[in-house]
Predict the structure of Glutathione S-transferase.
Amino acid sequence: MLTLFHHPLYASCRYVRIAFGEYGEELALIEERPWQRRKEFLSLNPAGTIPVLLAEGDHAITGATVISEYLDETRGAFQRSRRLMAEDPIQRAEIRRLVDWYLVKTDGDVTRHLVRERALKPLMAGAQGGGSPDSAAIRAARANVRQHLKYTNWLAATRDWLAGPRFSYADAAAAASLSILDYLGEIEWREYEAARDWYSRMKSRPSFRSLLSDRVRGLSPASHYADLDF
């Protein structure tokens, strides 16, 4: 079994978990708090970032998109209709664009700030960046939520799946990011019917089950978080 160093409220880590789950492959999960900069972890990844996959032969593969490319080359290429990356170069480009949108732009505009201020700061020592939540950062992140939900709603309303006719890495990336906001209770799903229908399909997939059982010390999920009928 492969091992993933992760944190349950990092979108990049959830993305990798969903992707492996789509291929029916279990991961041994080790929760890592990268702000602690453990020596043992830094020996695997000197940059100190997550996710890190300990692959065959105990080779460390670092970064969500690097791991997903490795997954596609070692598993996905043999999956045919279940492959998470398209065969067509233009479709592949669209999948990669949306993966970047959700794991970089959505995370940078919204997710990482709400996670840091609401969930991680209480777990950090002062020297690690802990302390009281920054209300200005929370307000700014919440102001950006609507843009990303509107865009997701448009994608879901105009396509079978977010990047096209088939489930892909793009759906895994979007679900990874939005599921964290859902955990935090930051999404008014009733305002985004198409996005809600898409997310309901995501929550029903076997690859998503482990995410629904995630819990973070000191911060319970929204009451509907694990409910498939929300």
Notes: The first strand starts at residue 2 and ends at 6.
